[in-house]
DNA sequence: CTTTCAAACAGAATTAAATTCTTTAAAGTG
DNA sequence: CACTTTAAAGAATTTAATTCTGTTTGAAAG
C-alpha cells in the first residue's frame, strides 16, 4: 500500500520533529512547503513503517536534587555467551542503570549509572552490581561535567533507500 | 505567584510524560484523578519553572542505514583549565559527537561518537578529532550491542523540596 | 499518443484537544 | 470570623488533529 522508502521531505520532517515534537502540522507544513494535512499523513506513515518510535518529554533532572553520573565498565570473569547474556539480562533490570552497552575492548560492558550521590553509588555497586554472577573487574569513572548530550541524529539520505528492514 | 515546589501529582505527571509525550491532558487526568484542565495548568507551570525542557520524537536510527557507535576516551597532553575548556568548546561542534563528558580518572573526556561505519570513524578520528589542540591519547571502544538506553529518570521526591535552583 | 491507475496533495468538513475564563471550595492568615 | 490565596472543575472558546473528497501528476499499459 504505502512505500517504505523516504524522500527528502520525510527526512526533513524527521530532522525537525526529532528536535521538537511540539510543532504543529501546520507549522511543519509551512517549513516544508506542504499542507498541514500532508504532514499529518506523512507522520502517520512514518509511524506505521517504524521510523518513528515515540515521543517524550525532556525533564530537567538537575532541578530534582543531587545527581551523580558514572560510566562504569565491567569485565566479566567468564566470557562465555551464557555469562554475557546472563549478566546483560540482569543488569538492565536496575533502574540506576540508564544505559548498558556490550563493548569491544578490555571491558565487556559500559554502564551509565545515575544515582543521587556517592553514598548511593557505593551501596549500588557493592551490594547489587558486584553481586551479579561472573562480575570481575569494575571500573568507575564519574561525570564531572556534561558538555554535550544530543539525542537527535544527523539524518543523511542513505545511498540505497529501498530497505524496509 | 506560583510555587516552585512539586507535589506528588507533579512527580507522577513528570514520570508519565517523560515516557510518552503524546498522552492528552484528558488521558493524564484520568490516571491522576484530575481534570484535563488541571493537568494543562500543571504542565504549563512545570514549563515555566524549568522542570520541563522540551519534547521530542524518538527516531529509529537503525532503519536509516549503517551505524557504528563508539565510546571514545580522550586524554589531553596538558591539563590546564584553558586546555580543557578549549578542547571541550571545539569537540562539541562535531555532529558526530553526540555526547561529551568531562570525567574523573585517567582520561579527561568520554565522547559518544556515532558514524556510519569504520571507514568514517577512522576518517573522523584521524583527520578531525586528533587535530584538536592538546589531544594526547585516544582510546576507542565500540558498541557491539545496545542492551539498554533509558531516557526517563527515576524521579523520587527529593527530601527537601523548596529549591528553585 | 491516449488511457488507466496509484500516489501525493490541498481544501473543506468534522472531531477532538488545547486553552481560556469563571466559579467554587478548601486552606492559610491576621 | 473576615480576607486572601490556591487548586481545581466545568463551561465556553479557540486551535489543532483527523477524516473525507476532489484534483493533479506521473508512471505503466495498451
From TrEMBL, chains A, B:
HTH asnC-type domain sequence ranges: 6-67
One MF annotation (Gene Ontology) recorded for this entry: sequence-specific DNA binding
Domain of life: Bacteria
PROSITE patterns recorded: HTH_ASNC_2 (PS50956)
SUPFAM superfamilies cross-referenced by the UniProt entry: Dimeric alpha+beta barrel (SSF54909), Winged helix' DNA-binding domain (SSF46785)
GO process terms (BP): response to amino acid
Keywords assigned: DNA-binding, Transcription, Transcription regulation
InterPro entries: AsnC-type_HTH_dom (IPR000485), Dimeric_a/b-barrel (IPR011008), Tscrpt_reg_AsnC-like (IPR019888), Tscrpt_reg_AsnC/Lrp_C (IPR019887), WH-like_DNA-bd_sf (IPR036388), WH_DNA-bd_sf (IPR036390)
Gene3D superfamilies: 3.30.70.920, Winged helix-like DNA-binding domain superfamily/Winged helix DNA-binding domain
Gene Ontology CC: cytosol
Stored PANTHER family: LEUCINE-RESPONSIVE REGULATORY PROTEIN (PTHR30154), TRANSCRIPTIONAL REGULATOR AZLB (PTHR30154:SF34)
The name this protein goes by in its record: Lrp/AsnC family transcriptional regulator
Amino acid at each position: 500500500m504505502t512505500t517504505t522508502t523516504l524522500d527528502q521531505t520525510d527526512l526533513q520532517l524527521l530532522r525537525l520533529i526529532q528536535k521538537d515534537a511540539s510543532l504543529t502540522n501546520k507549522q511543519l507544513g509551512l517549513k516544508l512547503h506542504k499542507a498541514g494535512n500532508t504532514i499529518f499523513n506523512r507522520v502517520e506513515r512514518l509511524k506505521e513503517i517504524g521510523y518513528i518510535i515515540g515521543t517524550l518529554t525532556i525533564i530537567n533532572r538537575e532541578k530534582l536534587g543531587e545527581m551523580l553520573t558514572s560510566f562504569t565498565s565491567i569485565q566479566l570473569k567468564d566470557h562465555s555467551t551464557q555469562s554475557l547474556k546472563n549478566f546483560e539480562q540482569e543488569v538492565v533490570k536496575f533502574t540506576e542503570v540508564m544505559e548498558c552497552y556490550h563493548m569491544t575492548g578490555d571491558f565487556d560492558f559500559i554502564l551509565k549509572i545515575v544515582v543521587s550521590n556517592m553514598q548511593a553509588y557505593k551501596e549500588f555497586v557493592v551490594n547489587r552490581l558486584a553481586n551479579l554472577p561472573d562480575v570481575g573487574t569494575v571500573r568507575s569513572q564519574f561525570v564531572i561535567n556534561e558538555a554535550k548530550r544530543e539525542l537527535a541524529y544527523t539524518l543523511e539520505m542513505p545511498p540505497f533507500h529501498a530497505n524496509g528492514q
